[in-house]
Amino acid sequence: MNLSTSKGAQVVELSGDLLHLTCRDFSAFQQKQLAYAAAWALERYQKGKKPRW
């Protein structure tokens, strides 16, 4: 594994699980998902892709 750290920083393996929360609540999660979906759809449209159902 390649890892870059600050000078003098110590890298250690954690003994337990790490909970990484990316949204403050379910509403924020939904908004993030809608934004990703819109960006993906725009990218496909700009590439000339047609929607499929």
Work out the oligomeric state of the chains in this entry. single chain
Q: Which class best fits the helix and strand makeup? A: mainly alpha
* Unreliable spans: none
- Taking all Cα atoms into account, the compactness measure Rg is 19 Å
Report the end-to-end length measured between terminal Cα atoms.
Answer: 42 Å
Q: What does the largest sheet look like?
A: none
Task: Estimate the helix proportion, in percent.
Answer: 25-40%
Walk me through what this model shows.
The protein is mainly alpha-helical. Helices cover 40% and strands 0% of the residues. The protein is built from one helix and no strands. It starts with 25 loop residues before the first helix and ends in a 7-residue tail after the last helix. The mean pLDDT is 91.
Keywords, please?
53 residues; mainly alpha; 0% strand
Topology:
Blueprint lengths: L25 H21 L7
Write a concise synopsis of the structure shown.
This is CAZy families GT2 protein. The chain is mainly alpha-helical and 53 residues long. Helices cover 40% and strands 0% of the residues.
